[in-house]
Amino acid sequence: MTYETVLYDVADRICTITLNRPEKLNAWTRQMHLDLKDAMQKAGADPDVRVIILTGAGRGFCAGADMGGLQAIGAGASADRSTRTSADLPGGSTLAEFRMNYSYFPAIPKFIIAAINGPAAGLGFVIPLYADLRFASESAVFTTAFAQRGLIAEHGVSWLLPRLIGLPAALDLLCSARKFRAPEALSLGLVSRVIPDDKLMAETRAYARLMADTVSPRSVAVMKRQLWEAEFQTLSEATVQANHEMELSFQTADFKEGVAHFLEKRAARFTGR
User: Fold this and answer.
1) Separation of first and last alpha carbons in the chain
2) 157-178 pLDDT, tens digit each
3) Is 15 a domain residue?
4) Is residue 181 part of a domain?
């Protein structure tokens, strides 16, 4: 399938999805929302995909909502504020919280890495927060931007951002809407690595290849679901769930392969079953 606003590529069991409006710094539109969601679902359901990388074309990741769309809303046009859940997302978490317009990444049963290659503002700041890991280029610049547009903490960021960087830091970034660069994002824990611009995709792909080649895709899918759902669980509930999942894992081909490749001192051949 060809998309209007994203590029979709699969190689070496890694799916790379690229926001593709470089002349607009990949500013967000409704079509991009639809394209990205479909592409994520497609990758999530593809047995040949084990890791997803999300990045932006050109010199930016995503500059936030397209200003033309915001101007139309200011002039009286209706905004799409649907909070309907999606029943057709494959695998992953079944919690309704993770099946809404912008919070669906945790419901994708593949590990998602955001490779933030430049400006990430507004919605372009929020989207990568739902990824499982974030790498940033040295030139990446971040801003929440909402307060500078007369808006509020949208798209669940008031729930997610404090969990990633703490309440005081979240209040700072949201209420000041100040710009900050990749080194500060790293010190806050917002991103896990800062990488030279010309090496961002190579190093991100190297990490993705490590996962695609050496770990059980079934284990990753289950652990991803456990960790995201644990935000809504007590320790007791998380432990009961883990005990159940452990019993299930003992019955899988990937468990047998995990023991066999270690004892036989060879590369793993996981199938996800």
Assistant:
1) 27
2) 999 999 999 999 999 999 999 9
3) yes
4) yes
